[in-house]
Amino acid sequence: MELKQLKYFVAVAEELNFRRAAERLFMEQPPLSRQIRRLEEELQVELFHRSKQRGVTLTASGQAFLDEARLTLSQAERAAKAAQQASKSEVLAIGFSICAFNRVLPDLIQRYRQQYPDVRVTLTEMLAEAQIQAILGKTIDIGFVHGPLSHPGIVTRTLLTEPLVVALPPDHPLTRLEKIDVRSLAKEPFILFAEQLKTDLYAQIIQLCQQAGFSPRIVQEASPPEILLGLVASGMGISLVAAGAEFRHRSEVVYRPLLTSAPALEIAAAWHERSTSSSLENFLALVKQV
Hints:
By secondary structure, the chain is of the alpha/beta class. It folds into 3 domains: about 90 residues, Orthogonal Bundle (Arc Repressor Mutant, subunit A), CATH 1.10.10.10; about 90 residues, Periplasmic binding protein-like II (D-Maltodextrin-Binding Protein, domain 2, 3-Layer(aba) Sandwich), CATH 3.40.190.10; about 100 residues, 3-Layer(aba) Sandwich (D-Maltodextrin-Binding Protein, domain 2), CATH 3.40.190.10.
């Protein structure tokens, strides 16, 4: 039994005329008559008396069925409205670091809003550790952090990897080299992103330098990237940045790859392994296409 059969039956029962019922349903009379016959066969009862003299009247079974059919249709309509209302009230809460936002988020959000315009998307800039706690506490649905990340209860997917490169003032002697050994940076003044803003990247750079036998001499912390690269271009110092900075930011800076292998900068999506949010599930379908 289908809902459309109930709609057909109710229309005939209320009109007590197959022609008028068909007009009300915007269909032809013969298909309507066949649908009612199929319904009666399925129920194994006669719902209508059909008489040339008296026309169409409900049987006792038909009257009993009419009350229940109306109730079923009403409940189906309420269920549909509830689902639509729930969709309109859905929220997708996203946490992000500024690096992740610049690289992958704008396109993802644009595509998601085109496909799911009724879902409200909220964005909160957060450090990686704060994102982890927010995911575990279910105050955000998904985070975008520097990887690699390993934490019980959290699933991650790497979206982007970029090697670190050396950013140099245009007249720096090291620009003559095609590749730069990290050890040759031991006496250079470093300009780095603020540790509290990019904790993971900051730690990666410190570790890379220490593995090369020195601690970097940090003369300035700066953000956003445009300011940091502007300071490098002015000759204040050198920096280590993600390779994509050369294409994302216009500045008079020379970029050189490192001679020794350096850990890549990863951008990863992270979410709770037990999340049941449909808005997140739909967003992850887009994330997995990246």
